[in-house]
Amino acid sequence: MKFKTEVSTFVLLPVYLLMFVYSALTFIPWYFLTNAKKRKAMAKRIKAKPVSDQPGSPYRAMSHMDSLATIDIPGANTLDKLFQHAVENFGKKDCLGTRELLSEENEMQPNGKVFKKVIQGDYQWLSYDEVNTKVNYFGSGLAALGLKPKNTVAVFCETRAEWMIAAQACFKYNFPLVTLYATLGEEAVTYGLNESGATHLITSAELLETKLKNVLPQIPLIKHIIYVGKKNLNKGEYPANLEIHEMESIEDLGAKPEHLNNPPSRPLPSDLAVVMYTSGSTGRPKGVMIIHSNLIAGMAGQCERIPGLGFKDTYIGYLPLAHVLEMTAEISCVTYGCRIGYSSPQTLSDQSTKIKKGTKGDCTVLKPTLMAAVPEIMDRIYKNVMSKVQEMNVFQRTLFKLGYDYKLEQIKKGHDAPLCNVILFKKVKALLGGNVRMMLCGGAPLSPQTQRFMNICFCCPVGQGYGLTETCGAGTITEVSDYSTGRVGAPLGCCEIKLRDWQEGGYTNQDKPHPRGEIIIGGHNVSMGYFNNAEKTSEDFYEDENGQRWFCTGDIGEFHPDGCLQIVDRKKDLVKLQAGEYVSLGKVETALKNCPLVDNICAYANSYQSYVISFVVPNQKKLTDLAQHRGIVGTWEEICNNPTMEAEVLKELKEVASSSKLERFEIPIKVRLSPDPWTPETGLVTDAFKLKRKELKNHYLNDIERMYGGK
After folding, report:
1. Which of 80, 303, 73, 284 is nearest to 177 (CA)?
2. 29-86 pLDDT, tens per residue?
3. Do residues 133 and 44 make contact, with C-beta atoms less than 8 angstroms apart?
4. What is the domain-level CATH number for residue 672?
5. Are 337 and 86 in contact, with CB atoms under 8 Å apart?
6. By CB neighbour count within 10 A (0-12 exposed, 13-18 middle, 19+ buried), where does 562 fall?
7. How far apart are alpha carbons 517 and 506 in whole angstroms?
8. Is residue 444 within 8 Å of 374, Cβ to Cβ?
9. 311-343 confidence digits (pLDDT tens)
10. What is the CATH number of the domain that holds 281?
11. Bridge-partner residues for 49, per DSSP?
């Protein structure tokens, strides 16, 4: 990303020279102390290659050409053994942390809406030994309620320490865990609970009252509900056949000698560990069946790509634990003795929506060293920071831009810019606490522009990972030494990846300059299929002649000469227009998200029409400023519905599309502005903020007919 300077280079020449001289003086010790030469060699080396010369041959990591990884900690071949290993090695150290809630306030906004604001204290920590005690008590308590080994337990709860404690208890007592996103709608939750056959449900007091209460009569198999959170519920308002318990009461029950002295029936590697319901982008949620050995293998591959993972690290947990990315990240952190501080997207930073102005967000207090994110969150951070840059005076703005460009050039050479880090990017880095040493992004493609921005301004490697629930989140992860953008790294040591020709889309292993095709992942991390859905399982999974399982992802990839993978398309996102051209909707959206006026965008096309249209959630501040500049006044809804503003946004989209080198037929020619954001709660995006195209199409059906010249 290059910026044009806005003031005389002569005025800024002394500053630029100072940056250059300081960086030059600090370069030599930095170069040797950080092994810059070795890092450059690591970045350029071959990271994976095909196992044979045959076209379509699977690619493997160079470190695992002979055999794929199946285990990380010797002897720990089930999840309960991983946790026991952690307790034995890190017993007295901090494990799980939760911020103390001091008070809550209702704050009236200028538009009349009321936002709940929280005032929080410090993190309160449980040690590994204390977590282990709670795990033993809770598992014993579940058994005392009548649960038998291999009976499923459902968890429908926000990300918090109690989620992880309950999960570890279920792993130890061999109760397969059924996970459901806390943001799923009533219909999806009802479907998942009924299909899984769970008789015991772990949830929060808030979700019990707001989402479950009305649908419990439709879920007859649930007999026990265990809730977390300090709240006195009126149990008389619930079905008479239900027993409702506080989590602490189950721990108290399990602590009784007559229950605690009954040893758990420990799982085997082949036993079912999790039935993970995906908040998929189409149709009803599917339950992915994951056995212990699947997760053990997947995490073995993932941990290999996180250098120095250990007890000095602090991880901030705020993504949905029902998502495979967050669950495996947290279990891996626990395995290596990290501490996990819990947060939420609404309390993450000082500027987050639930943080009272003048108080500190969770990152500022926790100061994490490791962090996972989805592209939607990274894009928000990027746009917020760049909005602040635009509000600077001309001198500050130009200095920031010069420093940004200078550091970009240094990073491309494998170097750093210490003065820029200290003077220009320190405040940006502080948004996430100031200590983040590595960020990992997954769940959807991250735009190269956002990835490069995070690399530069947060002064740490920002890697991309590629994996799916069906592969335990494991597939590829970029190495910390690789500062390229737009790629997702080489295959992990636990799996191999091959590309299958997709003739309809025009992708083959013979493509030049690089082979392309549908990504097929094979290895011990590939799950056992879909719960109660043999037809879909046989469609997406298969076993080869050696008994190895493979999963057909539906994503289109391209292997680079160094063995790194790039996601270039998705079969479901490809639409053939009336004139025969193929449009990749995901490609269009990734390019147009770079428009400053856009917070989110969905491109739409069908084979009966000759052009693409789009739906846009605009950036409220940017669009409001533009409306004022054009002399348009009104409410936010009126601004979004104004044809002049639609035309202005469309004009900006076309400029971004042109600079991104989209083809003429890929550029939307009509746009509909949405005044309401798309959140998992609206049902229009998944918990990883992937677009739900079917739901979006239904939501905007009238607009689609209007923009295509219908009613």
Report:
1. 80
2. 545 445 667 777 777 899 999 999 998 999 999 999 999 999 999 999 999 999 999 9
3. no
4. 3.30.300.30
5. yes
6. middle
7. 9
8. yes
9. 999 999 999 999 999 999 999 999 999 999 999
10. 3.40.50.12780
11. 60
